[in-house]
Design brief:
It is a single chain. The protein is mainly α and 93 residues long. It has a domain at 13-31 and 46-91: Cytochrome c-like domain (Cytochrome Bc1 Complex, Chain D, domain 2). It has six helices and two strands; from the N terminus they run αααββααα. It has a two-stranded antiparallel ribbon. Strand 1 (38-39) and strand 2 form a beta hairpin. Helix 2 (14-24) packs across helix 6 and helix 5 crosses helix 6. The radius of gyration is 14 Å and the shape is globular.
């Protein structure tokens, strides 16, 4: 039974994550993660410098719960995991 559950576990996919990033994140963070689009006078976080300092759990929480002027995004657990996989691939040093 445990093997069956493990086989069904979602494997994060950075390609799908890139598509979700383009849809949900790039309008503020930019395609390269460095855009500083202003929301209520606050620039979007530079992902190229911040992603490497945050855990997967924090990145997921920020996306699904929002923080500061960043609103929560409508991502399920698998979609959030895909975006985190993409962030790690695209923006970590």
């Amino acid at each position: 039974m445990l093997l069956l559950l493990a086989a069904c576990a979602h494997q994060p996919d950075p390609v799908t994550g890139a598509q979700k990033y383009d849809l949900f994140c790039s309008s503020c963070h930019g395609a390269d993660g460095t855009a500083g689009v202003q929301v209520d006078g606050v620039a979007a976080t530079d992902l190229a410098t911040s992603v490497g300092t945050l855990t997967d759990e924090v990145l997921t929480s920020v996306m699904v719960d929002g923080v500061g002027t960043m609103p929560p995004q409508r991502l399920d657990d698998d979609e959030a995991a895909d975006v985190v996989a993409y962030l790690r691939l695209a923006f970590e040093d």
